Amino acid sequence: MPPNKVKSAEPAVLxxxxxxxxxxxxxxxxxxxxxxxxxxxEKQDMILEAxxxxxxxxxxxxxxxxxxxxxxxMSKPNLLYYFPRKExxxxxxxxxLLHTWLAPLKEMDERGDPIPEIxxxxxxxxxxxxxxxxxxxxxxxxxxxxxxxxxxxIEVDLxxxxxxxAQVLLAWMEEGKLAHADPYHLIFSxxxxxxxxxxxDVQVRAVLGPDRNGEGRFEDAARYLExxxxxxxxxxxxxxxx
Amino acid sequence: MPPNKVKSAEPAVLxxxxxxxxxxxxxxxxxxxxxxxxxxxEKQDMILEAxxxxxxxxxxxxxxxxxxxxxxxMSKPNLLYYFPRKExxxxxxxxxLLHTWLAPLKEMDERGDPIPEIxxxxxxxxxxxxxxxxxxxxxxxxxxxxxxxxxxxIEVDLxxxxxxxAQVLLAWMEEGKLAHADPYHLIFSxxxxxxxxxxxDVQVRAVLGPDRNGEGRFEDAARYLExxxxxxxxxxxxxxxx
DNA sequence: AGAAATTTTGACCAGTTGGAAAAATGTTAG
DNA sequence: CTAACATTTTTCCAACTGGTCAAAATTTCT
Lengths: 242, 242
Description:
2 copies of one chain form a homodimer.
Chain A (H helix, E strand, L loop, with lengths): L37 H25 L2 H8 L3 H7 L3 H22 L6 H18 L1 H12 L6 H24 L8 H17 L1 H8 L7 H16 L11
Helix pairs in contact in A: 1-2, 1-4, 1-6, 4-5, 4-6, 4-7, 5-8, 5-10, 6-8
The structure holds a DNA duplex.
């Protein structure tokens, strides 16, 4: 039964070419892999794009490989050839995400003028919510679930960055160029208000109706937030209470 | 073992009492069902409580009946006796939620003083984020997924309420008791900033560290938000630009 | 062209999932 | 007590899940 080399009488059925079966594509995480062909990069990008779509809607557990494969336009085993585990895809998305996600805050420059700096930080964040809503939702989904797969990144990279920028904000306040306020909560409030437009998009759409949802919506939001963060809602003449 | 009075010659194996099998508990949705016994209400509450825990963390698709049953301390079929479908549980949670969720906004009274009204609306919302974080996350999860199961409630009840309160805000602005600003985005920004503390709790915790996370955190947030919504971040002496 | 490597497919699998059926076990009113 | 009802447990299932594997198809390299 085992393939004994029967020199003389080949059964003539089934070519039996002992082609070596294809191994899995070298894992991206491990150290010294080939430079990746163009096809490989393209396919991986298609998968990541599809995965972003699906993960951002359903969260990690709610998303299925089949779904992702279908959106990516390929078969499940084929997808698994490029990413041997579901978690792998998610991890790739998340770490790429965190990088772009923190970029706007990184750009806030302590040597700049506080008010314009904050103003443009808000605008950049709002632009991201408009242009990359799926990334925002992916992030939100992960947060809602307790960030099981990125908690350490949050606790290190994100936290350090926020600490650093909180110091910058504090310095500005000391200099009297910014109202005194808790810098951490200040940052939170910028995140919250801007990401809201991506994460709660359905709600925003439903409330604003079709009219107020077109081109102008983004500008309306930007204008409002600018006003809020600059002057608040108290009428112009009002004095601070205490 | 079973107390069969063996009159003649019962086969002695398996009593075969043809007791009618128990049907499912009458669905809550349908019209004329019994008033529900105390036990039924208790069990349903246990299930809903457990379901809230699980759904709020994993979303609808990510949550499993087994998980919910385990948290509720009962078997899966037993749970299914009270709620014949997974969706049923979710629907119950969501509709109960929306009611409480909108209550704070409903309370905003047009006959009151604008500034204190808004201030206490913010505080109530923040208290809800603190006291009912799971409800907040359940809601957020649903939104992230496109609100497939409550879109109509959003489009009707929520929208109407917001429209109504937007009018109130506008009137206040006309009277000069409130700065002119888009009332819809104003409401969004209150939702966003307050719910952020429930939905992104992990992140907030990670960033603030263990120190700034205890008793004081809520008060810090409340104080900051109050300042933000009242006066914004521009330093005290600054004039509005345009 | 032909060998070698890469990519794709189809068949398959074990574990999980939502749910059904029915039997077993209470509980309660007469 | 006991029939009728309510609740719980046991058993089971079909569909779906993440993932494997080897063969087949395709591309790449010489």
